[in-house]
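Record Aldehyde dehydrogenase family protein, 482 aa.
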Amino acid sequence: MHTKVKAMKMLIGGKWVAGKKTFEVVNPQNGQVIAKVPLASKEQMIEAIEMADRTYRTTQMWPTHERIAILNKVAVYMKEHMEDFAQVIASEGSKTINEARGEVKRAAQTIQISAEEARRINGETINFDQNEGSENRVGYYYRFPVGVVGAITPFNDPLNMVAHKIGPAIAAGNAIVLKPASVTPLSALKLADAFVEAGLPEGFLSVVTGSGREIGDPLVTHPAVRMISFTGGPVAGEHITQKAGTKKLSMELGSNSPVIVLEDADLHDAVQATVSGAFSAVGQNCLGVQRIYVERRIYSKFLDTFVNRTAELQVGDKMNELTDIGPLINEREAQRVESWVEEAVAKGAVIEVGGKRDGSYYTPTVLTNVSDDATIAKEEIFGPVVLIYPVNSLYEAVERSNSVNYGLQAGIFTSQINSAFFAIKHMNVGGIMINDSSDYRIDAMPFGGTKGSGIGREGIRFAIEAMTESKVVSFRLQENLL
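=>
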């Protein structure tokens, strides 16, 4: 079937703009070109930044109620056009149509929560008289926007991740310039269109599409950009930190998430949750379950049940509502996953199920006996592969969980509260889910990690805090004139 190729424009300072050059967006399932998108120049990125800066500086006061109204309108628009958004997500990315529909619901909620949190950007009074000699001073602090936010988003959540940048930025009163992933820019452009339809003042939002090599550095280094919010890989994250200079940084850089299953856990529940956590979004999920440590007494039973459940997953057409697993974002990524598995097997790993590639598809794969020095044991696989290990104790499981240079989220399955609290205290992660897999998240909670997993926290209220500055106000009162 022939797919009509859409000619897209990007949003610069409230105006839809074509590019002198374009690049193709393809459906990773079949390689069909679905859109041609502007390949922005360095000059166009600088133009977007400078327009954002002028807009921010010349807007004397952008009332909170206006920001709330716009965000609410966008949330309503998204709900009314949910299927349209879902079709775009599923067409340009890896998610099945059911997963795409779930992402639209979450993204609309992200925008709605942003509207609600805009009401709560508050300061507080300060008791200056706690300091001797300051008895005649009163004051407070309040929060104000940083100005221009530069945002860079990945391909795996092409709508909700964009919403997590734009929603808090607008709620706080900032202008924002966003560069979406080049393989999945259509969802970001569709969300930008929703903001235009909602009446967002021109200049507060630009979505600039193109090559990171061409437009990434201007976004990161331009002095008018006061904060960078980045979600992506650790190599790109380190590059940004070296280039950004004295800017605020918020970074989520991935993980290699562990889950612990103790012998007192509900085994059926643990299997169901971890299979979903390992293979949803074809494993292209920063919270995805990558390592599972199972107490030895139940290891064989857990492994057999997990393998059988994995084998039941349906791989195929992502637009089919019965499909569980679609393709990876492109064949190159599938080849990388394949090579990492082959390396692990060469070092003694056993493929319990899966391990087969067909173009951009890679079957859900379970590995055992994986060497600690295998790449797949140390790095983020970002694919449908999970490693399962036996352990002798909770202590060993925690130690091995902490052994990699990531610490985003983790999970533990147990019926013992003392075991849960031991893991809570000793696992070096940004979030720990009790009787849930590592991939559980709601968009209102603080989200971020330790070690190589990033800097700062996202989640709407916490992103707003990062996208604002605090200003202290102190009044020295005159002597009583009465």
